[in-house]
Specification:
Elements: H1 2-17, H2 21-24, E1 27-33, E2 51-53, E3 61-67, E4 73-80, E5 88-93, H3 94-99, E6 106-115, H4 122-168, E7 176-177, E8 180-181, H5 187-203
Parallel strand pairs: 1-5, 2-4
Antiparallel strand pairs: 1-6, 2-5, 3-4, 3-6, 7-8
Length: 204
């Protein structure tokens, strides 16, 4: 009766999660593996981590695996595909198989517990990193352009100020510099200008 209740609970949970009923409560042979760099969902494979491969359960599904020989259980997250050998229902990581005391193959029963947090694949992580790098480069470029523009504005402002000071101090008799009318000379400069004109008139 207890077994029937467990199967009913697993079936209801599987229906709520959209998991095939035949995959929610399975009993069969489990194997384990420790080779590979990436899992089927793009994660980096950690042999001593707690994960597993299943042929049909969605990635991120949390499954309880019970070793029928030792009675030990382990809760794993599905992040890979397999095993592709007839008669085997799940492929455990090396860390998971140590917990339930597996030595080679072992008879197990599976119970779907729920869905774990969604883990982004390595490709998505690389894409996000590349996008962040491009955004940082664009931001740095825009900051550089703004700083350059501000520097040019400061230089132009200083240049205009220097030119204004130079023109205000000009005391040429013509009152023009390169064809441009200069600013009105100061009183002291006007007196000097009158003396220069008088001296020129006497000499003439």
């Amino acid at each position: 009766m207890t077994t029937v209740k467990k199967l009913c609970v697993c079936g209801v949970a599987a229906m709520a999660l959209g998991v095939p009923l035949e995959a929610s409560a399975q009993c069969g042979t489990a194997s384990w593996y420790h080779e590979g760099a990436r899992t089927a969902n793009g994660e980096r494979y950690r042999p001593d981590g707690i994960s597993a491969a299943h042929r049909s359960l969605p990635f991120g599904t949390i499954v309880q695996v019970r070793n029928q020989r030792t009675g030990r259980t382990v809760t794993v997250r599905i992040n890979d595909r397999g095993p592709f050998i007839r008669g085997r229902i799940i492929d455990l990581s090396r860390g998971a198989k140590r917990i339930i005391g597996m030595d080679g193959l072992a008879p197990v029963c599976l119970a779907v517990l729920g869905r774990g947090p969604r883990v982004a694949s390595a490709n998505m992580d690389e894409g996000r990193t590349a996008r962040r790098g491009r955004l940082r480069m664009a931001s740095k470029s825009s900051r550089t352009r703004v700083a350059s523009l501000r520097q040019k504005q400061r230089v132009a402002k200083l240049s205009r100020r220097d030119r204004s000071v130079t023109l205000n101090r000009t005391t040429l008799a013509s009152g023009r510099v390169d064809g441009r009318i200069v600013a009105k000379p100061r009183r002291k400069d006007r007196a000097a200008l009158r003396e220069q004109r008088a001296r020129s008139a006497r000499q003439g």
